[in-house]
Amino acid sequence: MSAGISPAGRDPRLDAGGGLDVEAIRRDFPILQRRIGGKALVYLDSAATSQKPRVVIDTLVDYYERLNANVHRGAHTLAEEATEAYENARATVGRLVGVDPSQVVWTRSTTESLNLLAYAWARRHLRAGDVVLLTEMEHHSNIVPWQILAREVGARLQYVPFEPSGQLCQESFRTLLSERIRIFSVVHASNVLGTVNPVREMIAQVRQAAPDALCVVDGAQSVPHMPVDFEHLGCDFLAFSGHKLYGPMGAGVLVGRHQRLEEMEPFHGGGEMIESVSFEQTTFAAPPHRFEAGTPNVAGALGLAAAAEYLMSLGMDRVRRHSVELTDYALERLRELGGVTVYGPFRGELKSGLVTFVDRDVHAHDLAAYLDSLGVAIRAGHHCAQPLHKRLGIASSARASFGVYNTREEVDVLIEGIARARKLFGSRS
Amino acid sequence: MRENSSAADPDPADREIRQRELWRDVLLDHFRDPRGRTPLAQPSCRREVRNPLCGDRLVLELTLAEDRVREVSARARGCSLSVASASMLAERLPGLTIGEVRDLSRTVQAYLTASADPAGEIDLGEIEALGGVRRLAARRPCALLPWRCLDTLLGEDAGVSNEPLR
Ligand SMILES: Cc1ncc(COP(=O)(O)O)c(C=O)c1O
User: Fold this and answer.
1) Neighbours of A156 (CB within 10 A)
2) I need a surface site. Which of A7, A352, A409, B86 has the fewest CB within 10 A?
3) A interface toward B at CB cutoff 8 Å?
């Protein structure tokens, strides 16, 4: 049966108790039928990229089969339909985080969104001696662009440390507050610790100390897993990636406050982003198109909108509840198992649907390779967060991360796999 | 799962996996009981490197005399592949001339990067058990680390260096 409203009028993917019917949801994800070396795929790497529901895949195919044309150009039927679909997709994705379509800038990814800010906003506004305030739990994509820029203009980077609990140290944060802060960029949910940071409260404090500071939220790991409302966060910009949100790769978003978008220079120059061009000069288009030079990833935008619709039809409250319950279950099973160090908060409610750990006996890479032979996909390494790992005093860690399609039984397979890996590797003298 | 199956006698499912995948018995033996872990009292040369991908570390020390390797200490901290590879290196090198070491290292690296078959003129012996990484590009740096470290060690005059490996 295809996903949709059942004859009884109830979406089969929602259960009566305010949660998700995961078995029904699993049928929406074709890849979950795959077998890896004869074993059922247990996909626990959604923080790296989520799997895609049938409706997203169909949207991509449908676009190329039925609609494909370049947008905002040419007055033929296909071009008009493609343009309309593309702009509707902007509105849909805006709805997911509560903003107007004019605030939604299409990018390739979180990484591109953050780079766009570094080059289009900060390169113009950042001065020698200014402070860019980040945290110690940032993904490389929220460190490196600022480092490049800070070096260029002579600005300083400062980092809010985190506590052994995996939460940002609010006391240190307050001591770092100053009017020198020009940019505050913070991860909403850490891709390693899972920690959901109190970004709303932190942004409010930054604004008190430095009213003009640009406040940026990296929503790569939060927008897919919990209700996120742009206005509520109080930030100037919110970046996220479609591919972690059940959408296609190569489609990302930068959501911005109108006034900030207006004051920002273009990122790339080219077609699509201009109002008029002469040989001498160019008048730039209004946001969001000003930041979308060249032929865009229309199929990707439509696919991302389909994913956003899919999530909204489940309801972000239910998505969040499932994520919290599964995380709590995984934490509990890891505690029972023993012999592992778990990083980050030890409560699902404080996390964004992942568990990161180091086994006492089995190296993370061996564990991941061994689990793969059981059909279980997890991530091992530094997860693009080397400074964070350095702070934890470890070189690498193992991470299992969850999506709407994961079950408790899959967590059980993971735990049993860890126990079995220990038998293979654990007797090292 | 069987209760009393020790690591030396894993349950049948594990054995099946282990044989099919990366971990042949020889490799696991080197991993569980690595050779050449004792630091040398007076190494002729020493180098410490890190695998930039996973942060694993390796300390490699050699004593050389009359153009031959006499003693080796290869202390790897990392995954099974890097530990086993270092152990195999430590076992294999003593007694070889510098020229023979260079030839061996070249052959091993060609084999691990899948650019050559094991049937070269040099018999790789147990080192062949690292061959699982030929299909797994992501894990190759782990198995290669000791050999690359060895190259840099021999590429210079004997001395002490802690530079990261690139
Ligand atoms: C917290 C966080 N920020 C940023 C990124 C970068 O996302 P992308 O690779 O899609 O640009 C990721 C993805 O790993 C992430 O987890």
Assistant:
1) 14
2) A7
3) 37, 363-366, 369-370, 373-374, 380-382, 389, 394-396, 416, 419-420, 423-429
Of A365, A419, A427, the CB nearest to B139: A365
Q: Of all helices (H) and strands (E), which one includes residue B71?
A: strand B68-77
Token pair, residue A35, equals 């077998």
Q: Which two tokens stand for residue B117?
A: 């078959």
The question of ipTM being above 0.90 is answered as: no
Q: What span, in angstroms and rounded, lies between the C-alpha atoms of A418 and A411?
A: 11
Angle between helices A364-373 and B12-20 (to 10 degrees): 100
Work out the pLDDT band at B14, boundaries 50, 70, 90: low
Measured distance CA(A122)–CA(A214) in Å, rounded:
9
Structure tokens at A286: 């209004």
3-class DSSP state for residue B30? helix
- Closest CA relative to residue B81, chosen from B37, B150, B147: B147
User: Pocket of ligand 1, candidates A106, A110, A190, A246: which has the most ligand atoms within 8 Å of its Cβ, to mutate?
Assistant: A110
The Cα B140–Cα B145 span in angstroms is 8
Q: Which of A106, A108, A111 to mutate to test the pocket of ligand 1 (most atoms within 8 A of CB)?
A: A111
Two tokens at A396? 């690498």
Tens-digit pLDDT profile for residues B46-95: 999 987 777 788 999 999 999 999 999 999 998 999 999 999 999 999 99
Ligand 1 lining (C-beta closer than 6 Å): A 109-111, 139, 141-142, 187, 191, 218, 220-221, 241, 243, 384
* pLDDT, tens digit (0-9, with 9 covering 90-100), for A314-363: 999 999 999 999 999 999 999 999 999 999 999 999 999 999 999 998 99
Contacts of A246 (CB under 8 A, 6+ apart): A50, A51, A52, A53, A56, A224, A307, A310, A311, A403, A404
Contact A124, A152 (CB under 8 A): no
What is the DSSP annotation of A370-398? HHHHTTEE-EEE-TT-HHHHHHHT-S-EE
Q: Which amino acid is at A84?
A: E
pTM: 0.90
Contact call for B79 and A363, based on CB within 8 A: yes
Reading the block at residue A335, the tokens are 């505690």
**Most A CBs within 10 Å: which of B35, B54, B81, B87, as the mutation test of the A interface?**
B54
Residue for token digits 């295809």? Answer: A2
Q: Max CA-CA distance within chain A?
A: 74
Alpha helices in A49-162 (DSSP H): 54-62, 77-96, 110-116, 123-125, 144-153
CATH number for the segment(s) B35-161: 3.90.1010.10
Give dist(CA A76, CA B5) in Å, integer.
71
Atom of ligand 1 lying closest to residue A383 CA: 14
> Residue ranges of the domains in chain B?
35-161
C-alpha separations of A80 from A77, A92, A300 in Å: 5, 18, 18
CA–CA gap between residue A46 and residue A402 (Å, rounded): 6
The verdict on a CB contact (< 8 Å) between A425 and B31 is: yes
Question: How many Cβ atoms sit within 10 Å of the Cβ of residue A329?
Answer: 18
By annotation, the residues of A acting in catalysis are 384
Cβ atoms within 10 Å of B87's Cβ, excluding its own: 25
Residues forming a β-bridge with A181:
A131
